[in-house]
Amino acid sequence: MTGRVDSELRATPSARIDEGMVGEHRTVRVIRDNGLVVADVSLRGAALLSWRVRTGGGDLDLIDGYRTSSEIDEQAGCRSAIMAPFTNRIEGGQFTFEGQRATFPVGESPFDDGVVLHGLARFLDFSVAEVVHDKDATIIVFRNSEIRPNKFPGYPFAIDLAVRYTFGVYELAIDVIGTNVGASTAPFSAGWHPYFRIDDTPLELLELEIPAATRVATDENLLPLPGAAAYVPLGGASDVFDFTHPRYIGDQMIDSCYVDVRPSPDGRVHTTLTDPARGLGLDVWQERGGVHAYTADALERDPRRSLAIEPVEVITNAFNRSDQSAAIRLEPGETRTFRFGVRVTTDANDDPFHLKTPLPAHTPEELP
Predict the structure, then answer these.
(1) What SS3 class is residue 69?
(2) Rounded to whole angstroms, how far apart are CA atoms 127 and 42?
(3) Is the pLDDT of residue 350 over 60?
(4) Residue 241 within any structural domain of the chain
(5) pLDDT for 284-339, tens place per residue?
């Protein structure tokens, strides 16, 4: 397939795929189990535009994604951005890798605003490569092969990308898969930049828990401090940035990366956002890496109406840090997958909507 969904793959008794448009941008809509879940993905950047699930209390709107064609064009807020081949910022738009100096033309397309951040995938149009339905989930794989040395002067490497969405009823899993198709080792990292909400509950009334021991300290440009100074142990209840145990966000401004994360017995790292009054929450999980949290204070539309919980493989400015050099190496012919997701949680003891039954794990070899 080259972007269109084949007619025989559009529908099963439990799921349907529709094609749509947001202005000039093509989208794919997933409808499962008679509307228990409805999700929209833009082919520009393979970005999740919306994710709505139905519970006994009504429909829940859980993602604050792009709403208009102009927001997609401008990448306003980098909403739901699939971040690859780098995450967050690159200092000065420059880095040296394996003795090769690379410089992005800062102030020119695609980084017209002079800040090189959140990768290149968000500027690219993906194609629909595969659609699979079964009784538990709908899987859609998006692909792009445009990251090449002559495409982006600041990134002289060749990377094929795949983004695999797995939509269950109350859980969404994402695999970002990067393959180095070039002849030399490439720097590569991946992440996701979603803004979560629990319907219209104000951010101040939500509880956040991040199972991390360390926060990354940054300068006025939101770049990590040099060397070991970047890593600050969290200080307990008196530390306003310590969310090791659930605490209300309140009026706290957050734009921080958390590392030294603690996996749960299932091997995953679980960051939770909860509405205690409603007994509902979101469990944002990832298989490795760190967690960047941002209270959306600087968004042009709806500031502080959502919380960015960003699974990231490495910290900001990793391409310029010796302590991240091993983590970003992608050898010629090598494929690396970063897997993460989110599921709806409930306090209900009887779990009538099966919210506590996670999607099955998949290995990279199982990817369509």
Answers:
(1) helix
(2) 10
(3) no
(4) yes
(5) 999 999 999 999 999 999 999 999 999 999 999 999 999 999 999 999 999 999 99
**Which of 5-14, 41-50, 112-121, 358-367 has maximum average pLDDT?**
41-50
Q: DSSP assignment of 320-355, as one string? A: G-GGGHHHHEE-TT-EEEEEEEEEEEE--SS-TT-T
CA atoms within 13 A on the CB side of 184: 11
State yes or no: pLDDT of 365 exceeds 50: no
Going 94 to 97 to 99 to 104, the CA torsion angle's sign is: negative
pLDDT at 175: 99
Cβ atoms 270, 285 nearer than 8 A: yes
Question: Per residue in 41-82, pLDDT tens?
Answer: 999 999 999 999 998 778 899 999 999 999 999 999 999 999
Residue 231, domain member (yes or no): yes
Domain count, the chain: 1
Q: Degrees (nearest 5) of the Cα angle 116, 119, 120? A: 105
* Residue-number span of the structural domain to which 26 is assigned: 7-366
Residue 253 CA to residue 10 CA, distance in Å, equals 43
In a domain, 87, yes or no: yes
C-alpha dihedral, 207 to 212 to 214 to 220, nearest 10°: -40
Which secondary structure element, helix H or strand E, spans residue 26, and what is its range? strand 25-32
CA distance 125 to 142: 9
Buried-exposed string 166-183: b where 16+ CB fall within 10 A, e elsewhere: bbbbbbbbbbbbbbbbbe
Listed in order, strand segments (DSSP E) in 2-93 are 15-22, 25-32, 37-42, 47-55, 58-61, 81-83
SS3 of 280, please?
strand
Query: Is there a domain that residue 1 lies in?
Result: no
Instruction: Find the CATH number of the domain harbouring 111.
Output: 2.70.98.10
The token pair at 281 is 């929450």
The pair of structure tokens assigned to 100 is 């090769």
| pLDDT 10s digits, 8-43 | 445 566 899 999 999 999 999 999 998 999 999 999
Burial of 87-116, coded b for 16+ CB within 10 Å and e otherwise, reads bbbbbebebebeeeebebebeeeebeeeeb
Q: Looking at residues 135-154, what average pLDDT do you find?
A: 95
